[in-house]
Predict the 3D structure of the following.
Amino acid sequence: MRYLPIAVVLMLVVSAAEIAVAGDIYKWTDEEGNVHFEDRPAGEQPERLAIQSKPTDPARIQAMMQARASAAAKVAEEEAAATPEGPSPEELQAQAEERARLCSSYRAQLQKYITSRRLYREDESGERVYLDEDETLAARERVENQVQEFCSS
């Protein structure tokens, strides 16, 4: 019990010494000309910098954060007001009709690809170029993917 006050005083002295030392910043330059900043003297001829700091004002930080939050909320409101709510019913109907038309077209094309003996394409001169087996399978797969894309709900 007698040593408790002494221990407390020693801890306070050590803490104060660490705080004072931790605030020192030294600037030095190495052999290659690079400038370094450290909390301990190092290198040749370290220069102690007189840096002073002040404690942060919590009220100022809180006011700044509230101002940022309100500005972000205002921007979000403006973006929401500027963004249309979505396509009109007429646009939705036109999109549905276009999908139905494409679906029908791709299904007919797929049926043709399945029932045809050989598939071909026309070259620049209008001549038929017959597809080999790999090209035929790839063409069928492309059309099957398009049928799935446009015919699924």
In short: The chain has a mean pLDDT of 83. The helical segments are 4-22, 58-82, 89-115, 133-151.
